[in-house]
Design goal:
heterodimer; A: 74 residues; alpha+beta; two-stranded antiparallel sheet; 15% strand; B: 385 residues; alpha/beta; OB fold (Dihydrolipoamide Acetyltransferase, E2P); Rossmann fold; 5-stranded parallel β-sheet; 12 helices
């Protein structure tokens, strides 16, 4: 899952998990699954924040109308 | 009269001049005697031809002069003058031989009315955008909270781009920046910006775009008042932040964009959350997660709360310290995880569908099930009940 999911989706899912854990009458099995998923998503979100380095790319349009993306050196 | 002009040399043997000879000579006399000059007057009978050339008369109470302003000279102007407008023109007096007509070849035209041609062009374009509903506040889209991809349409070498990169690195390094370099002023800038805006729709998973430039003179910023550029902004499929660095003038690009920022730095701030705030939000969610599971022994919860309280007051502390504390919270959170319980030697019994089996009744003889222990899972079978 998660590595590719957007940060927004990650957070939305986390909020949903927390809401369900708080509000719903879940059996242990479901609660465990949700909790584990939540911990995992939290870990991924934190890792992403810690490792982030704001990559900068440059987008150029080629003659054939295709996009070319390359690292920006500016 | 200039003595070097040979006025009689062209006469034919019968003593008469041809029409062409007269007009040619008259033109030479006129151009030699009257150099380029500024003229003030009122525009009348204005007409723009398909060729792009402008024809009009300049007049005052006593006289009028036919004028032409060629496309190569008028295309720098934001709008055409209207009849009755008071203008200054800089032009070369000449004689148009084909019509035998005295006229002024206009090189420069300035309106003396308030705001001049620039204001006129602005109001015209604004009215057209308004008519099409592009200035409707209901069109404005909210900016994304946690953008993954941010595009920047601006000059490659300007301070604007450097500022946007610096602010994004500081606040929200999670984002990837896609720079679409473009000319932002002068000849061809309008086409270049429109082309760059058209590329935005083709960047996969783009969340938000910043369009702009650093400060400049009113004329330098004029490209951002182009109706075409404004329509280009309106057509971008993701929310657009306009950052045309000018405090007093609002451009059409600003009016059409989903959000207006006074500077490129402010645009980058509007586009991104602050990572310290996001960290705090994650901590908050982590605490709710732990509480939500109901695994809260008083001791652990208190410890978590203390940590969170400290974090709450620490918003102004440097990021490194926040991160340090964050990892402390993570550790405590992990202590709550069932995985840690397994570490102590407990096992979780689940059937093939992943349902937890808690009672003897659920474990019929011969049933295959799975045992989750701390480092993985094994298949098992009930041999006897």
């Amino acid at each position: 899952m998660a590595e590719e999911a957007s940060f927004t989706r990650q957070l939305e899912r986390l909020e949903e998990i927390v809401r369900r854990l708080e509000a719903e009458d879940l059996d242990l099995d479901q609660a465990l699954k949700l909790f584990e998923e939540g911990v995992e998503r939290l870990r991924l979100a934190r890792e992403r924040l810690a490792a982030a380095e704001a990559k900068v790319k440059q987008v150029l349009s080629e003659h054939a109308g295709k996009l070319r993306v390359e690292d920006f050196d500016g | 009269m200039d003595a070097t002009l040979d006025l009689f040399g062209a006469a034919s043997p019968d003593g008469a001049w041809t029409v062409g000879e007269v007009t040619r000579q008259a033109r030479a006399v006129l151009e030699a005697g009257l150099g380029p000059l500024w003229v003030r007057g009122e525009v009348s009978g204005f007409r723009a031809w398909h060729s792009g050339h402008w024809y009009f008369a300049l007049r005052d109470r006593t006289a009028q002069i036919r004028c032409v302003m060629f496309q190569k000279d008028n295309r720098r102007l934001p709008a055409s003058p209207a009849d009755g407008m008071q203008v200054f023109v800089f032009g070369r007096p000449t004689l148009w031989e084909e019509k035998g007509e005295f006229r002024l070849t206009v090189l420069e035209l300035l309106s003396t009315e308030r705001g001049g041609l620039w204001q006129l062009a602005f109001e015209k374009a604004k009215a057209a955008l308004q008519k099409d509903g592009l200035l409707d506040p209901a069109r404005k889209r909210p900016l994304p909270l946690y953008p993954g991809r941010i595009a920047v349409v601006t000059s490659k070498d300007g301070a604007a781009l450097r500022d946007i990169i610096a602010v994004t690195r500081r606040r929200w390094p999670v984002a990837e920046l896609f720079v679409i370099p473009t000319k932002v002023q002068g000849d061809g800038a309008e086409d270049a910006i429109c082309g760059a805006l058209a590329l935005l729709g083709r960047i996969d998973r783009l969340d938000v775009a910043i369009v702009g430039r650093g400060g400049g003179s009113r004329e330098d910023l004029w490209t951002f008042n182009s109706e075409r550029v404004a329509r280009g902004v309106a057509a971008v499929p993701v929310p657009v932040i306009s950052a045309v660095g000018h405090e007093t003038d609002v451009t059409l690009c600003d009016l059409v964009a989903d959000h207006r920022a006074p500077t490129p730095s402010a645009a980058a701030e509007a586009a991104t959350p602050d990572q310290g705030d996001v960290t705090a939000e994650l901590n908050h969610l982590g605490a709710r997660l732990a509480r939500g599971l109901g695994l809260r022994s008083e001791r652990v919860t208190q410890r978590l709360d203390r940590t969170l309280d400290r974090l709450g007051g620490a918003a102004t502390l440097r990021l490194e310290r926040q991160r340090h504390r964050l990892s402390a919270v993570s550790g405590r959170l992990d202590a709550l995880s069932p995985l840690r319980i397994l570490e102590r030697g407990y096992a979780l019994v689940r059937d093939a569908e992943g349902r937890v089996l808690k009672r003897v009744a659920q474990l019929a003889p011969g049933l295959a099930f799975r045992l989750r222990v701390t480092d993985g899972e094994v298949a098992a079978r009930v041999t006897d009940s």
